[in-house]
Amino acid sequence: MTPVRRQSTITSPAVCAGIELHGGQHTRVVLKPAPVGSGICFVRTDVTDRDNRITVGPEAVTKVQNCTTLENSAGVEVSTIEHLMAALASVGIDNLIIDIDGQELPALDGSSEPFLKLIEQVGITRQPAPRRYVKVLEKIAVHRGESYGCIEPNPNLYLDVTIDFEDGAIGRQRMEIEPDTRSFRDRLASARTFARAHEVAALREAGLSKGGSYENAIVVDGDKVLNPGGLRYNDEFVRHKALDLMGDLYLSGPILGKVTTIRGGHGLNHQLMLALFANPKAWKFVTMPSENMELGCDSVLA
Questions:
Q1: Residue 295: is its pLDDT beyond 60?
Q2: Which of 25, 124, 152, 172 could pair with 164 in a Cys bridge, judged by C-beta atoms 3.0 to 4.6 Å apart?
Q3: pLDDT tens-place string over residues 159-179
Q4: Quick check: 133 and 209 in contact, CB under 8 A?
Q5: Which of 22, 83, 240, 266 is catalytic?
Q6: Shortest CA distance to 154 belongs to which of 274, 255, 249, 262?
Q7: Is the dihedral of CA 5, 11, 13, 16 positive or negative?
Q8: What is the Cα–Cα distance from 167 to 165, expressed in whole angstroms?
Q9: pLDDT over 90 for what percent of the chain?
Q10: Confidence bin at 302 (pLDDT 50/70/90)
């Protein structure tokens, strides 16, 4: 995979709506084109008494329990952003305004596929500016309980994800992928989030998973998958973990490096990125200017 050389945004606005996985409320999202160098920014349109803009970045992460949550200095939050972020990463969207009228993105079907299709429908526009990558220079490793993660030099983004659950329906699964638009679409995009039946009650007591259902999540009970339609892939669980990792990594922008996680999750993903940026010798920004940037913006297929 050759890294994209130019910054990108979407060609025209796109709209979706649905039920929040954890909050259970109905939210509406509008994706809007943004200018060169502006980055990705959420705007809480339901908040009018204080700063309602939340700029995407690892420094904005405040919660990592069952999803990734961002918060600005005014205490305004947006959560469960990882599935949309993974879709944006797969097609290389650098600049985007995301209006949302609630705290949490809609779950839709529990995967990234609806977001990806939405982006592909409105199109992608390459912009006349070089894209900035985070290039990994030295290996960084972290531990979080029984979980392990590391990031090390590699010409492109490469993911090596292993999960290990006692539940017979999940077990130990591993996936390796160098994600680009095609491989993401074919292998990751439609993999859904999942929960174990014994966890659902605890999640709801904690104020989470209020909107969870068989329509937007896989539920397993021991060696059984409870969803009437079963799985989309035999290893759908590890595919979704790789999807989540891709979305969490993209909070830092496009990365050139190999990322390995074992028994990972949002907390480990965030810890790994903080450890990387805490070591200035372990990374640097690089750009890959395009010979044709002077031609201005142009539209491309996703």
A1: no
A2: 172
A3: 999 999 999 999 999 999 999
A4: no
A5: 266
A6: 255
A7: negative
A8: 5
A9: 85
A10: very low
**How high is the pLDDT of residue 212?**
85
CA of residue 42 relative to chain centroid, distance: 14
User: What does the domain layout of the chain look like in residue ranges?
Assistant: 6-300
Query: How many beta carbons lie within 10 A of that of residue 234, not counting itself?
Result: 10
Domain 6-300 class, CATH top level: alpha beta
End-to-end CA distance of the chain: 15
The mean predicted confidence, pLDDT, of the chain is 93
Q: How high is the pLDDT of residue 200?
A: 76
**What pTM did the predictor assign?**
0.94
The secondary structure of the chain, three-state, reads: CCCCCEEEEECCCEEEEEEECCCCCEEEEEEEECCCCCCEEEEECCCCCCCCEEECCHHHEEECCCCCEEECCCCCEEECCHHHHHHHHHHCCCCEEEEECCCECECCCCCCHHHHHHHHHHCEEEEEEECEEEEECCCEEEEECCEEEEEECCCCCEEEEEEECCCCCCCEEEEEECCCHHHHHHHHCCCCCEEEHHHHHHHHHCCCCCCCCCCCCEEEECCEECCCCCCCCCCHHHHHHHHHHHHHHHHHCCEECEEEEECCCHHHHHHHHHHHHHCCCCEEEEECCCCCHHHCCEEECC
Band of residue 49 on the pLDDT scale cut at 50, 70, 90: very high
Cα 100–Cα 77–Cα 24 angle in degrees, nearest 5: 65
For 293, how many CA atoms within 13 A lie in the half-sphere containing its CB? 16
Between CA 209 and CA 206 the distance in angstroms is 9
Residue type, 205: E
C-beta of residue 236 within 8 angstroms of C-beta of residue 74 = no
- Let me know if 240 is a catalytic residue: no
Band of residue 197 on the pLDDT scale cut at 50, 70, 90: confident
